[in-house]
């Protein structure tokens, strides 16, 4: 599991390989990930948006931006956490993801970014 703390917000990431399938005459590799966002600060915060860079072993990069996570903009109280699961498709059995969440601190009303650390995606059959 990968962990990183930015401005009192701890991001933990766990990944898994879901399988592969053919689509439009190309093989795709499906990966899942579970992210836990823990508020270790003294202020309530809200996650408003996300930015992802999804990289594969073929040097393809996909950028994904959107509101909240999984259709939610969670408010996380001090000492609280929010966990969600999602996934991505790659055209190679190896890759990685990284990004950031855009959040607001309710006490100061200031926006800030929380780093989502780089985490690797790899199909177990492709590892030596």
TrEMBL record:
Q: Which PROSITE patterns match?
A: APAG
Q: According to the lineage, what is the superkingdom?
A: Bacteria
Q: Where are the transmembrane segments?
A: none
One GO-annotated biological process of the protein: error-free translesion synthesis
InterPro entries per the record? ApaG_domain (IPR007474), ApaG_sf (IPR036767)
Segments forming domain ApaG: 3-128
**UniProt cross-references to PANTHER family, sorted A to Z:** F-BOX ONLY PROTEIN 3 (PTHR14289), POLYMERASE DELTA-INTERACTING PROTEIN 2 (PTHR14289:SF16)
Q: What is this protein called?
A: Co2+/Mg2+ efflux protein ApaG
């Amino acid at each position: 599991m990968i962990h990183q703390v930015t401005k009192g917000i701890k991001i933990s990431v766990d990944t898994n390989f879901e399988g592969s399938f053919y689509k439009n005459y190309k093989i795709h590799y499906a990966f899942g990930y579970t992210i836990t966002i823990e508020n270790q600060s003294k202020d309530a915060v809200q996650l408003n948006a996300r930015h992802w860079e999804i990289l594969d072993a073929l040097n393809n990069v996909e950028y994904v931006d959107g509101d909240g996570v999984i259709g939610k903009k969670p408010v996380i109280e001090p000492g609280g956490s929010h966990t969600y699961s999602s996934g991505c498709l790659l055209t190679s059995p190896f890759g990685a993801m990284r990004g950031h969440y855009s959040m607001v601190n309710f006490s100061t009303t200031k926006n800030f970014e929380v780093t989502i650390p780089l985490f690797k995606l790899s199909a177990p059959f492709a590892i030596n």
